[in-house]
Amino acid sequence: MTNECVEKREQLGQLYGSVLGSTEVDPLFRGFFDHTRRNELAMPRCGRCRMVHWYPALRCPHCASPDWHWSVMAPQATVFTWSVLRHQLDPLLPVLEGHIVALAEPLEAPGARLVGNVLATPSDMAVGLDVTIEFVEAAGTELTLPVFVPCAGSCSVPGQRS
Amino acid sequence: MRRSAAIVGIGETPYVRRSQRSLTALVIEAVEKALADAGLAGSDVDMIITEGGLMPTAAPPDEVARCIGVTRSYSVRTAGTYGAGIAGAHLAAKEAIESRSAAVVLSYFGVDWGSHAGAFHGLGGSPGSMKYALERPTGLFVQPVLFAAMANRYKHVHGVDLEPALGRLAVELRAHALANGSGQLSKPLTFDDYLAAPFVAEPLRVPDCCLLTDGAGATVTVGSDRARDLRQVPVDIRGGAFSSSPDRMSDFFTQSRGYPFFESARIASRRALELSGMGLGEMDFVQLYDCFTISLLLQMEDIGLCEQGSAVEYIGSGDTVGMRNSDTPINTHGGLLSHAYVLGIAHVIEAVRQLRGTAGTGQVPDAVTGLVGLLTGSQYCAIVLGQEAS
To answer: Is residue A139 within 8 angstroms of chain B, CB to CB?
Structure first.
């Protein structure tokens, strides 16, 4: 991992921490963050119809069953769409250089779109780009967020892929 | 014979960035003007139907009723949220009049988001939801970024460059707004100006995004029998339909199953036309929810002005958009992009003016019928308005 990548992850961690502060996560979504803290991506899988849904809901949107559990997914995904932030709109969120945000479809959860920043340069970005899902801790909080690293890129953390 | 409903009064405040006035004061001004326009009094009102997301707390019907001299028992309804709720209020007014649940329906909507900018982000979601815990820290949270991502997806799906089409829409709507004259902006926009404007979130630039506005508008709807005795040319609410796709509102801009299309716009607009017994080709104009140039472009396809994937060609083909001698002029007052961001109440009022023939230099010649289609994420409501059938 290059110094630049270390810095970028550090920067995002600080940013996440300042936005999230003391955010109290709704019980419905807490399982997601229990897994990200262990560097795992988990999504709700229904015990009845076996389908994955996203975001979490009180009942499975496919079969209305309340019986779903957090299921760990392989940390591979494909960019579904993306944008580069250029102007500060959210008073809590300053815009960084090369501030890319994407929706990525996990390999094992087609149709679900996970949101995350991308550790890449804007010129690398394209729909369909293969990415690895990694994790960045929001500084000073209990929350860890997924980030996307292009598979061909140089920002991945050795040993973080499960 | 079935009774039909007609809009007989319209009223608006000036549209400005900062009004220095409370939202309720803005709403009451618009309501008083609409009643005066109709030649009716507050004491004639027996039903208030308003947008259901903001108005019940921001400008509550009971407060409005108290200030405009409603003297007897009246009923209150709300109909959908934000833009779809504004069109929805007019659909509900039609239904209430036709079923004889009401004789005089007052509808209104106002915002003070010009004074309170910065509050604006995707719809719904509690502070502990994924919207705040996961989306907000990444930046895919505020509306321009969510729509920028939709634009990039569209570019990929259809393999097109959006820049010429989005720029063209921004330029055309500015020309409409200047012809209208009652909007917030007075400076023309050229395509070169568009290209020189800074990005907000790629590929959207400043002129791709709606304005921020303080302002309010109101309408009065009565039965067509009564409308004939009033002072204005009645504008019939011919038909309308409301549709919501089965997506949770707070998830809509990241997880909608039709992404990046507005499934509910397709369904509601077709159903509204069907119920009106008319085709889109018969509309003399359409007023669509143009919160961003890209959302307007998507709706042009969704409602069927052009095939899916062909909007860039349609917009670029010369006289189709904007020119008032084209088949279907769009957003004749300049829309949310260049007139005022009041979420669609000005779209309804402009449609009424066009059909009265009082739209001034922005008048579409011989306009007889028009469609208003307003969007709120998963919700869409389309209404067809027309001159009274003779």
So the answer is: no
CA-to-CA dists, residue A69 to A15, A59, A141, angstroms: 30, 11, 25
pLDDT value at B124 more than 80: no
Chain B: give the shortest CA distance to residue A73, in Å: 17
Residues of B noted as catalytic:
289, 341
Q: Where are the domains of chain A?
A: 3-150
How far is B176 from B330, CA to CA, in rounded Å? Answer: 9
Residue corresponding to tokens 């004491």: B43
Name the residue in chain B with its Cα closest to that of A91.
B118
Nearest to B221 by CA among B207, B234, B210, B208: B234
Cβ of A25 within 8 Å of Cβ of B248? The answer is no
Nearest-angstrom CA–CA distance, A145 and A13: 9
Chain B residues close to A102, C-beta within 8 Å: 140, 149
What are phi and psi for residue A103, nearest 5 degrees? -105, 130
Whole-prediction pTM = 0.96
Nearest CA in chain A to B254: A113
Please tell me whether the peptide bond between B207 and the residue prior to it is cis, using omega within 30 degrees of 0.
no
Write out pLDDT tens, residues B144-177: 999 999 999 999 999 999 999 999 999 999 999 9
CATH numbers and ranges of domains, chain B: 5-115+211-387 (3.40.47.10)
B187 Cβ neighbours under 8 A, 6+ residues apart: none
What's B262's DSSP letter? Answer: -
CB contact under 8 A, A103 and B140: yes
Q: How far apart are the first and last CA of chain A?
A: 17
- Asked if the C-beta of A117 comes within 8 angstroms of chain B's C-beta atoms, the answer is yes
pLDDT digits (tens, 9 = 90+) for B225-255: 999 999 999 999 999 999 999 999 889 999 9
Q: Number of A to B CB contacts under 8 A, please give it.
A: 121
Q: Give the C-alpha separation, B185 to B183, whole Å.
A: 6
Minimal Cα distance from A24: which residue of B? B128
Kindly provide the ipTM of the predicted complex, given to two decimals. Answer: 0.94
Burial of B359 (0-12, 13-18, 19+ CB in 10 A): buried
Q: CB B133 to CB A29 under 8 A?
A: yes
